[in-house]
Write a structure and sequence with these properties.
By secondary structure, the protein is mostly helical. Helix content is about 85%, strand content about 0%. The protein has 10 helices and no strands. The chain has helices at about 1-25, 30-35, 35-65, 65-70, 75-85, 90-95, 100-110, 115-170, 175-225, 230-240. It is rod-shaped and about 90 Å long. Residues about 1-15 and about 15-25 have low confidence and may be disordered.
């Protein structure tokens, strides 16, 4: 998603820049992108590596945040039926056969059954929060990239501006407007590159964060339904006393 957007944008820029350069005889895409001197080239290479990392993280989240991977169909019903029949071993075995977020939370609840329903509820809440935190931790790297990329781009621009005005100072103001313009537009390329990485990364981060919230909420609902028979029995025992 983010990677495709960034990739298509870079390809469009490459095509347009090359066409314009051919028609006007000016600099081509690579000449513009890598025209910032050693510092500018270093920053552009860093931005390219960051964009590749962002693409990997987006792909990783697309693979990880799938409902069938975190909340397999039929698992909750299978475990609920086993618990309703009083067969805790079958419920435990069903979770072991299909490791995922939901099975981890359910097994954590099973481990607290001997301590009473209040301990089970606490264990379920803690394990679900732990799983959600793990998903959010993996996603945070994408947020970091979305914040770092514009800063790297701005660093390249500021550095390029410094070098351009240094040229003015060294020539005692004799540098021409075209010479200054060339230095400035070369410096601004890094800011454009940083924004091209950051904007899709921010969008992808928001989409994946909402997906995690939705999946965790669905997992919480499924867990409540699975343990409904046990909760009902615990309430009946409490009322009988």
């Amino acid at each position: 998603m983010s990677a495709m957007f960034t990739g298509f944008t870079w390809l469009a820029w490459l095509q347009e820049g090359s066409s314009a350069a051919t028609e006007t005889g000016g600099d081509g895409f690579f000449e513009i992108v890598f025209s910032g001197g050693p510092i500018g080239i270093g920053i552009m290479v860093t931005l390219i590596l960051v964009s590749m990392l962002a693409a990997y993280l987006v792909f990783d989240q697309l693979i990880t945040l799938r409902r069938r991977e975190l909340l397999p169909d039929g698992l909750a019903d299978q475990v609920r039926q086993a618990l309703a029949a009083g067969d805790l071993a079958a419920a435990h075995q069903a979770c072991k056969q299909r490791p995922c977020l939901l099975s981890f939370v359910l097994m954590h609840g099973f481990s607290e059954l001997e301590y009473g329903w209040s301990s089970v509820e606490k264990g379920l809440e803690e394990s679900l929060a732990e799983q959600a935190a793990g998903l959010f931790r993996r996603l945070e790297y994408l947020s970091v990239i979305a914040n770092i990329a514009p800063m790297l781009g701005l660093l390249g621009t500021v550095t390029g501006m410094i070098m351009a005005f240094r040229e003015v100072a060294m020539t005692q103001g004799m540098a021409s407007a075209p010479q200054l313009a060339e230095g400035i537009y070369s410096a601004l390329v890094t800011t454009v590159a940083g924004l091209m990485i950051a904007i899709p990364a921010i969008g992808a981060y928001a989409i994946f964060r909402n997906r995690i919230d939705r999946l965790v909420a669905e997992a919480a609902w499924s867990v409540q339904q699975v343990f409904a028979p046990l909760r009902k029995r615990a309430k009946q025992r409490s009322d009988a006393r």
